[in-house]
Fold each of these.
Amino acid sequence: MFIDTDIFARIVAGEIPCDKVFETARILAFRDIAPKAKTHIIIIPKENLVTAKEVTANNLELFGELFLVAKEIAEKENLKGYKLHMNVDEEGGQVVPHVHLHLLSRDFKSPL
Ligand code: AMP
């Protein structure tokens, strides 16, 4: 079930702290508060998009940048291999109503 506030928008606004690992003009990445792997990083667009269902021909570049940032973080953190995971909508297991890509590597604990 979606939580009722977009906590990731509040992180972007600086109202909630985060353990930031990477930032561009349009993207923010921070460590997951309840990691499901040794490395578990959340990568988000700063724009308030709720789910990946909002991808269109007009914002393809923004969605693509999530993957570019994931690659750059993986290089920075010396990750040899990793999982990229995105829950889409409540029925897809998404809890936070803000588009986010999970980057996970090593010692995976449980499915997301
Ligand atoms: P999802 O189920 O795909 O919506 O994933 C939401 C993720 O956000 C979960 O892995 C949570 O542990 C993580 N999360 C929730 N609140 C915070 C927070 N304040 N800072 C960092 N990660 C968070």
Amino acid sequence: MKIIKAKDYQDMSRKAANIISAQVILKPDCVLGLATGSTPIGMYEKLVERYNKGDLDFGDVTTVNLDEYKGLPKEDEQSYYYFMHSHLFDYVNINPDRTFLPDGMNEDPDAECERYEEVIRSVGGVDLQLLGMGHNGHIGFNEPGEEFAKGTHCVDLQPRTIEANKRFFASAEDVPRQAYSMGIQTIMKAKKILVIVSGEDKAEALKNSLFGPVTPHVPGSILQMHPDVTIVADEAALSKCNL
Ligand code: F6R
């Protein structure tokens, strides 16, 4: 595991954008696994800046997102589809037909999860998977539990996640209770993984993920078993790690 220490959120965003840019430059037809949430917003801004400068070309890139709320239509401002369009896809030359997310409006979880796994298989798997991390160590919407979820699945969001995500909604009641998420096995199949973490409130989860026992009670701890993981975290997020 490679741990890159960033000074602050901006520095983390810049360093993470460097890694994504390198991937796109070295393999223009790569498959990027993407994440939403507040952590990657600065990084997406930097990628758009680089595209505008002519340094990056997304023309042959394919993307598959980690997750989507179940029950939110694409045009809902809180859907991850909307997020990806308003932070990246609408500002770069990516082919919209090559951007994939789980379909939150598919009411049949088995059919949707199978469809999404097939999408990932059909694009040839993920070259570089971006991950954020939840306060409880979740990755994607893989919440702490008794076992690691395998493939794409329908998740019941935990109270702490609903609480953390309510800032984007009018109230906690409006946060969807379920989501479709890539599973741990899906994530672990990516050739490379990039994890970005910012803020002291993530320090405990990051320490447990990087240095604690590998356990489904801390989903991020499984990353210790992946052969090619890079962590870009700011000083606050790394404050509980003795580096
Ligand atoms: C988002 C995702 C989540 C977030 C995590 C951190 O696609 O899968 O695991 O990465 O909840 O969210 P933020 O960045 O908002 O703290």
Amino acid sequence: MPLLIKNGQIVTPSETYVADIYCEDQTISAIGKNLSATAPNTTTIDASGKYVFPGFIDPHVHIYLPFMGTYSKDTYDTASKACLVGGTTTLIEMICPPKSDEPLAAFELWKGKAEGKSACDFTFHMGVTRMDALAESQLKEIVRAGVASFKIFLAYKGAFAVDDSELYHTLRLAKSLGVITTAHCENAELVAELQKQLLAEGKTGPEWHEPSRPESVEAEGVHHLMTFAKMHDAHTYIVHTSCEPAVRAALEAKARGVKVWIETLIQYLLVDKTHAEQKNFEGAKFVMSPPLRDKRNQPFLWDGLASGAISTLATDHAPFDFKGQKEMGRNDFTKIPNGIPSLEDRVNLFFTHGVKTGRIDLHRFVDAVSTQAAKLFGLFPRKGTIQLGADADLVVYDPNFKGTISAKTHLMNIDYNAFEGMKIEGRPHVVTVRGQVAAKDGKFVGDTKRGQFLKREPTHF
Ligand code: URP
Ligand code: ZN
Ligand code: ZN
């Protein structure tokens, strides 16, 4: 069914103007003034007084995640509905296989969890948790199948972490295939030693999670990755950068010619380590890695986003219930499943605290939550912009909406919300996936099986 969006203020990283958008066959077919519907069954949306943004892209999510002795709570059914009401129309999920699993089997497993079950489009970063001859040949096959990015962990000793030899060979392979490597940067050995020491001192509560992985340990991880990336001239993307020293380590490497881009998360901008220090184990809700940091880092991260030094704002959505899951670590903080879900609220919170306060201009806003991810991960210009021929993934955004975040009303399949009680100013009025309305005023109204796997070509040679 054709779609006509009338009189919205269209915003991309480079332009803003008022116009109509006409969409047919899932893509944008006309942009201009005074467009009228040519087909009788056209859906018409009045966007006067509202922004029209390209559908938001979350470049770092976990929907299916076997981790720390349990499984993340969302499915593609619940996660895609939740992200769509928040305006996110494309998810890039991390495939995180245990070291014992073969990459191809993992790729098929993760794809099977999404195909035919997602309301939004999706693709993956292929986690490289082992690197041997078999893995190498299967990774090449996965890239040919349309996955143009890898994910490696320097953290999580004994689980996902790669050693230096695996790191070296992964980056070499990535360079030869033209794929970008996304990386979780924390020194796994230092974390393991600090955890042991803290537990031996009887420090078992969630407030000790941050001291077990201090800022210097994250910065060392970044520096380590940068040294290896430089050897191969490999393209790298540092996920969930939480603090000034880690960002500075990446920027210093960039100045030395390392090809690196930086991601931060909405959590690091709005909640801090004091949240993980709350009494009665409440702090467990705020345990993730890298940890929430001292508040002094927040202005630095906001400035980095405003200037573009930090390219993207993601969620690292990793949903574990408080009851029964976070509680696994009641007597030992190292057993609290890591993750703070935020898929649904990322953009509304960023708009409220970034755009509405004047910290982030509208162009950088769109760039950070949509366009940069599309460009870095081989989705542009199909996704991440509003132009002729692009997928009609559009967000008609009401900047005057006022609301309050709560687990009572969210769609994520999780029993708490880390932003509980926070006010938002701004929310998607209408969200479309390839020309079909999927969400309206906080409600999912779409087709639960409409999402497609997005094949991507390598671009980072
Ligand atoms: O705490 C986190 N970030 N959990 C998800 C796994 C990861 O490290 O991305
Ligand atoms: Zn991570
Ligand atoms: Zn993650």
Amino acid sequence: MNSDNRTELLRQIKDDVMNLKESPLCRDRVRNKVFPVIGEGSHYAKIMFVGEAPGKTEAETGRPFAGAAGKFLDHLLKSVGIERKDVYITNVVKDRPPMNRDPLPEEIALYAPFLDRQIEIIRPQVIALLGRHSMKYIMERFGLGSVILSISRIHGRVFEAASPYGKIKIIPLYHPAAALYNPDLRSVLEGDFQVVNKSVE
Ligand code: URA
């Protein structure tokens, strides 16, 4: 089972992102001593979490969800007995947008093919979407564009979709950072993580 070349294919993605020249987001990597954030976790993960883009701590460390939102993500994983090392965590956009602004459509278009490749290599059963940018991109990508509503209306719902490697489940969730500003969302996210956990076969 572990005899395929996922590690090599994922390393290739890292090299390709490192070699990107056309994104304004990657121009200041050297001067600002920041890194792109490719992704982290099991190359055989059944669950993939997809966030929006790296923030300050992530760009400084090269690791996804390494800051305050990541601490809450760690709590959410723990609350349902999932170990962080057993899932794969990544973002749509791989370099930090300045001042944490929303990613621009052209930035999503540039970086999303790397996410597509990560999904094809890791073949998760469940893709959990952290926030509205990953919800929009992934749901449209998997033919679910017509059922997209605001996160407040579809968070925690399980959508089935076809992928090149079989059926998958797609679950939109609030972004963990939203719960840092609105504590009422903590228990909503905790409930939705139970849904994510139960969706794995
Ligand atoms: N927010 C995201 O969307 N992704 C990260 O990696 C960190 C914060």
